[in-house]
Amino acid sequence: MFRSRERLQAIQNALVTRRDMAPDPVRTFLLPDRKRVDINQLQPYCPSGVDFSVPEFQILVDGVHVCTYRSLDRTAVLLLSAVGTPHELTATHVPRYPVLEIYISSGGASAQGSRQITIQDMWAIIYALFIRHHEQDTIPIVLSPEIQNHIVLCSYILCSGLGRTAISSHGSKEDIFLSRAAFWQGAGTHGYHGRGWLCPSSASTQYAAAPFPSVQSFTRTPLVITAHPLRPPKPLPGEVLYRRYCPTVDQVLEFTCFDIGIDDEVSPHLEAFHRWQNDERVSKGWDERGTLEQHRQYVKNVLKDPGVLPIMMSWDGVLMGYAELVYLKENHVATYIPDGAKDWDRGLHVLAGEERFRGWERAQAWLRSVHHYLFLADPRTERVIGEPKAENAAIIQVSLDATMHLATFFDFPYKRSVLTFLPRERFFKMDVL
């Protein structure tokens, strides 16, 4: 079914940007704390009717002006390996980008009513820049010295890893190169403010701020015998774990820890899970058709397993799907991974339950967000690995489009599967979010 040439072509297609599907530049989006960001282009007054000025853009958070930015009349390039070589001044393969100046316009005031920008608003500004200039792996900026706390902001950007200065002596010392990869890895969030995609809570705040310590544990089941790191405690039932606005569908995606309810209560999560598993389309993939009590027991067993985190996914608060996020080392798929499962490898089993929330754009949004959550949850996770049925061409194509690649085929006792891989570096280097 999947010949070598077709597989290679599919991978190549997945790694090429779908320019024909590129949406118009986003002008409004929501931060993880649900505050609204507006990016407005200012229209200067021109008596002659001809505007020769440089376009200016104003960024507002919940209607409050936080900054204005514009392109300067120069570009900058971040050179790394070429520095100190004869190619330092001729490395044309490294893209040059316009330098953006960030300042507070005379007609606006910051959230504090002064010419300062808070740390969390600086992160929102960087978010807005990567929303507008998402195709750039770096964005060179300068902070106007008229911003009263510009030194503090520079220190925040550099110390958090959100940006870096140029290594080459030929660049401007004032330029800071914002890093798209560092931004989507959560740099500048936990430990600085509470606006990140991982939602802080009583159960997960410490885990999100610092990795859970690596302490040996052990699993012995009929299918698995292995030593592995101790896994962190599970979040509270119903706890929101991750929240991100997805511009492609103009909705907020949330991941919530499965809430099974108390005693014989039928929680909204359990009701949806039961209904979805009895849907013919879902049953073909999961083969878990059954009674409400069977599904209650199924979820209870998952919740008891330290290596599996069951979550419910929703669009703007409306439940749409279910996923099990697993640590692969104590999962029976580990035996089939060619180079073996690493301590912090993660896997996923997913279903999109609601018919109205199906489609390529939504599938890409939630699958890439699941990958994002797994990489954010622990910086030691270097790979996300899937094992869909080999005959499930739809989910395999969705995985390829999300920049996973096909590593191999293998046979469980009950199905033939495809092993899909996503390395951490590829995910954050490419323009996928």
TrEMBL record:
Which SUPFAM superfamilies does UniProt cross-reference here? Answer: Acyl-CoA N-acyltransferases (Nat)
> What are the Acyltransferase MbtK/IucB-like conserved domain coordinates in residue numbering?
265-309
The GO annotation for biological process reads:
siderophore biosynthetic process
Q: Name one GO molecular function term.
A: N-acyltransferase activity
Q: Which SMART domains match?
A: AlcB
Pfam families per the UniProt record, alphabetical: Acetyltransf_8
- Source superkingdom: Eukaryota
The entry sums up its family as follows: Belongs to the lysine N-acyltransferase MbtK family.
What is the protein named?
Acyltransferase MbtK/IucB-like conserved domain-containing protein
| Originating species | Paxillus rubicundulus Ve08.2h10
